[in-house]
């Protein structure tokens, strides 16, 4: 698993070399970035302004945005849970996402994950921390951060784990230790994209193990991933962490895909 650490450095060297040869442009629309915009990140002001934050009212457990019928004031006064969490409370204490998985955020995540733009991922991680208060994340200070692991096949294709890139940047800014190998994926799973909620749950069942129980035992763990859809992966990882002694598991993702 050492390649999970060293391959991003090679990727960053490639990106730095390309930056010297070609001027900076917006990763979303391709417009030439002004000097002030270049210092802020790889996206123009207009595109970044279209990114939607997930804000209350949300489910107090899984972070699912609630209908407009629930007012912001009432959501702040009482703990409101979505119907799914009322029926079956997840093993994580809470899950929160910063952005809706749409528009420029979706595009930036694709640039990061599938086109190897590690610098875009680092920018998104910094944005997660800077917007922490604006989104009223409500996650207590963690003792450690654990990224969701990916399989060997995907790691060799991408040359990095996108969740680890996010976790390292978040840990650096929050001054919280990151344990890259606390969790390991022990089986390859089918792509989750086209599966139903029930199929996703079965797909990731028994897919993870804890490498070193001492890393997580008795600690508040912040589990970091890129996108939260049905929560199948977050639930399975949280279950394994709790079974190995984690005091509490909170989940933080860059974006959330809201299913209709």
Can you describe what's shown?
This protein is an alpha/beta fold and 260 residues long. It has one domain (3-256): Rossmann fold, CATH 3.40.50.2020. The chain has twelve helices and six strands. Strand 5 (220-228), helix 12 and strand 6 form a beta-alpha-beta unit. Helix 6 (103-114) crosses helix 7 and helix 7 (118-130) packs across helix 9 (162-174). The longest helix has 19 residues, at 3-21.
Compile the SSE list and pairings.
Layout (H helix, E strand, L loop, with lengths): L2 H19 L13 H4 L6 H4 L23 H6 L5 H5 L6 E7 L2 H12 L3 H13 L13 E4 L4 H7 L3 H13 L8 E3 L11 H8 L3 E3 L2 H4 L3 E9 L3 H12 L4 E9 L4
Helix pairs in contact: 6-7, 7-9
